[in-house]
Amino acid sequence: MSKKFEVRLKRSLIGQTQKQKDTVRCLGLRRVNSVSVVDDNPAHRGQIFKVQHLLDVKVLQES
After folding, report:
1. 28 in the Ramachandran plot: left (φ > 0), alpha (ψ -120 to 50) or beta?
2. Each residue's pLDDT tens digit in the chain (63 positions)?
3. Which of 18, 31, 35, 38 has the highest CB neighbour number within 10 Å of its CB?
4. Most distant CA pair in the chain, distance
5. Amino acid 63: pLDDT
6. Please, what sign has the CA dihedral across residues 57, 47, 49, 3?
């Protein structure tokens, strides 16, 4: 059973640093309200933590 995260970009990237913009892009998000599903691993957890103020995160259970 592997966990996945559903991440939604809830705030605009205007005014954010370039590193934060790059991180959001690497998570597969392009514009406000776009949704991406990513695996639960240390790399993605670090990316989500870095831009947590811009995201809405839900945990999905896969069997």
Report:
1. left
2. 579 999 999 999 999 999 999 999 999 999 999 999 999 999 999 999 999 999 999 999 875
3. 38
4. 40
5. 59
6. positive
Q: Which two tokens stand for residue 48?
A: 């989500």
Q: Report residue 21 as tokens.
A: 């913009």
Q: Supply the CATH classification number for the domain 3-61.
A: 3.30.1390.20
pLDDT score of 13: 97
Q: How far is it, in rounded angstroms, from Cα 49 to Cα 46?
A: 5
Domain ranges of the chain: 3-61
> Which of 62, 6, 3, 53 has its CA nearest to residue 34?
6
